[in-house]
């Protein structure tokens, strides 16, 4: 299945975001290698230079590191740093809009089922 990309952000950023979600989910684990640039380019059907740019963005955020001759590896503490960043982003940007929408719809905490998937 070919991944779909939107016009909302550059493809490299969309890929970086997808890879960050995978890191947040623990895949790969801290200290483990990411797939190669070629493997990611093939998997996502994009140019290897786009993959390299996405990996550079993750490197700049301290989530992965390059090990010369070995590839890209998830840094220690990356998952927790990413979780902290995402929590802050959610609380500052997403939650106020979501809370306002819930209020407009007349929904309260008891109307929400946290256990369903």
Note the run of SSEs as H and E: HHHEEH
Oligomer: single chain
Architecture per CATH nomenclature, i.e. the level-2 architecture? Orthogonal Bundle
**Remind me, CATH topology?**
Arc Repressor Mutant, subunit A
Q: Roughly how much helix do the residues carry, as a percent range?
A: 40-55%
Task: Please report the number of helical segments.
Answer: 4
Strand content: 5-15%
In CATH, what is the homologous superfamily?
Winged helix-like DNA-binding domain superfamily/Winged helix DNA-binding domain
Beta strands, count: 2
Low-confidence parts, pLDDT < 50 over ≥5 residues? none
Give the averaged pLDDT, no decimals. Answer: 94
What overall geometry do the principal axes of the alpha carbons give? Answer: elongated
CA-atom Rg in angstroms = 17 Å
Number of domains: 1
Order of neighbouring strands in the sheet with most strands: 1-2
Protein name: GntR family transcriptional regulator
Domain HTH gntR-type: 9-77
Keywords: DNA-binding, Transcription, Transcription regulation
InterPro entries: Tscrpt_reg_HTH_GntR, WH-like_DNA-bd_sf, WH_DNA-bd_sf
